[in-house]
Amino acid sequence: MIIWIGIDDTDNLDSRGTGFLARSLSEYLTKKNLGRCEWISRHQLLVDPAIPYTSHNSSLCLKWLTTTEKIDLIIQESSTFLAAQSATGSDPGLCIVTESESDQSLIEFGYEAKRKVLTKEYALLLANSLPIHLSEHGGTGGGIIGALAGVGLSSSGNDGRFVWLKGIREMKGIFSAYEIVKQSGVNRIQSLDQNVIDSDDTIDIGEWFRPVLIGHQAVLLVEPSQSTASKWKIIDRKTIKARY
Questions:
Q1: CB count, 10 Å around CB of 68?
Q2: Are 160 and 44 in contact (CB under 8 A)?
Q3: How far apart are CA 220 and CA 102, in angstroms?
Q4: How far apart (Å, rounded) are the C-alpha atoms in residues 20 and 38?
Q5: Rounded to 10 degrees, what is the CA torsion of 18, 241, 103, 142?
Q6: Residue 243, CB half-sphere, CA atoms under 13 Å: how many?
Q7: pLDDT tens string 64-96
Q8: In the 8-state DSSP scheme, what is residue 196?
Q9: Of 184, 180, 182, nearest in space to 232 by CA
Q10: Gap between the Cα atoms of 82 and 65, Å rounded
Q11: How far apart are CA 16 and CA 13, in angstroms?
Q12: Which of 26, 108, 138, 160 is deepest in the core (most CB within 10 A)?
């Protein structure tokens, strides 16, 4: 079965970011034999002076494959991990929901968090109306807002970019579209105007490529390359950050 594990506000200005902690949590749960990670997605939330955040106000979500009998232990171990590993002065929150229990109101909350200043009370009100886990693990616990939003956005299948997906940190250089799909977790490669790339076309993925979440799939966006070494290159990081 699929569950979503959302975390937010685990860092301070001197610590590693929440993306690093999300990857560490995945490794921790894997070592505990509690399932495996399919992806970790990053979701940009509203940047506003009224919202306390460390640098970018983004939340992270793990798409996790497991079995029903392990869910309670996943909640317990994730809670223990966040309480122990979150940075001093942070306000960590945790949200866990099964795929079958995720509904439209959760997705709508996620999109609200991208355009409105939301409150803990609002997050708790929604959580209490659904069969989900939402908990605070230090400080003000304000991270529950982002954790809940991250779960909603990742489960929507149409928001965010991947900070972890099979192959995206190991593959570097130039590959054919076929090789990228075969060796990584990427499902589809397309240009910005949505044309699907031919399987034998060459793509320069650089040092680390960043697929985005579109239609519940990991999609790699590319643009024409000016180099003779490859036909395409991944779109630049600035464009990815601005759009996803």
A1: 9
A2: yes
A3: 26
A4: 16
A5: 40
A6: 14
A7: 999 999 999 999 999 999 999 998 889 999 999
A8: B
A9: 180
A10: 20
A11: 8
A12: 160
Task: Please calculate the CA angle 235-64-28 and round it to the nearest 5 degrees.
Answer: 100
Q: What contacts 3, CB < 8 A, 6 or more positions away? A: 64, 66, 71, 74, 96, 97, 98, 99
- What is this structure's pTM? 0.93
Residue 228 has pLDDT above 90, yes or no: no
Is the Cβ–Cβ distance between 156 and 149 less than 8 Å? Answer: no
Residue 10 pLDDT grade (very low, low, confident, very high; cuts 50, 70, 90) = confident
If one counts the domains in the chain, the total is 2
Q: Is the confidence at residue 243, as pLDDT, over 80?
A: no
Q: What is the CATH number of the domain that holds 85?
A: 3.30.70.2200
- 122 with 218, same domain? no
- Two structure tokens written together for 97: 């929901």
Angle separating helix axes 120-128 and 143-156, nearest 10 degrees: 50
**Does residue 56 sit in the same domain as residue 131?**
yes
AA letter at 37:
C
Q: Residue 224: beta bridge partners?
A: 232
> CA 12 to CA 31: how far, in whole Å?
26
Q: What percent of the chain clears pLDDT 90, i.e. is strictly above it? A: 77
Query: Does residue 188 share a domain with residue 136?
Result: no
